[in-house]
Amino acid sequence: MPFRDRADAGRQLASRLTAYAGREDVTLLALPRGGVPVGFEIAKLLRVPLDVLIARRIVAPNNDHMTIGAVASGGVRVVDDELCRALGVSDRTVQRLADVEAREVERLERVYYGCHRAPDIRDRTLLLVDDGVATGASMRAAVTAVEQGGPAGIVIAVPVASYAAYAQLSGRAREFVYCYIRDPVYSVGLWYEDYSPVSEQDVCRLLGETLDLTTSRQGAAGQESSRELPPCATGLPR
After folding, report:
1. Stated pTM of the model
2. Third-level CATH fold of 6-53+119-220
3. Domain locations in the chain as residue ranges
4. What residues have CB less than 8 Å from 124, skipping those under 6 apart?
């Protein structure tokens, strides 16, 4: 397999993102849960802050491997209408499934932003990171969500991508960075020797570690540091 685990994938991907290393205008937003271990390694190596952007797939009824859309923070929903018609999934069913995932997004916002505020993304260059994109639905929802926050630019970065996802997303980003691109990808997990599940506790732990690293760097640079929560976010719509 190209990647031993998500940490290895993050290190390989970081080598393609060195142009963003140490830049004060850059924020890395990882898609939980699988994107966070990848993003954590990139954030450490590039010395940029890490946070999360929550997006959830909408899967077809009775087929967890078939993605028909996604929802993300800020009430964003994207749906593959053509695929839904081909599968015979009604608008009412799509609405019901999307509502379930939207409620899960709200729950996860409380979990992941429970110890800190969502980041302000206005006028910042954003690195959007996941552990891979097959259909690209979750990443499309993520891009739509951050576009509303007025960033200076969006960079999509994933270890592996399908050509179809690249075609859909590359026009909406300043760059689309990947280690491998193939069609079809089938399942992102097939590209990893170890694709163990990432828990919510894992995500919170990594976020805590990167917040500690960011504070330490600010202190080392002689900047004023504080353990207090930053002001309420104005970038990501909530």
Report:
1. 0.85
2. Rossmann fold (3.40.50)
3. 6-53+119-220
4. 25, 26, 27, 151, 152, 235
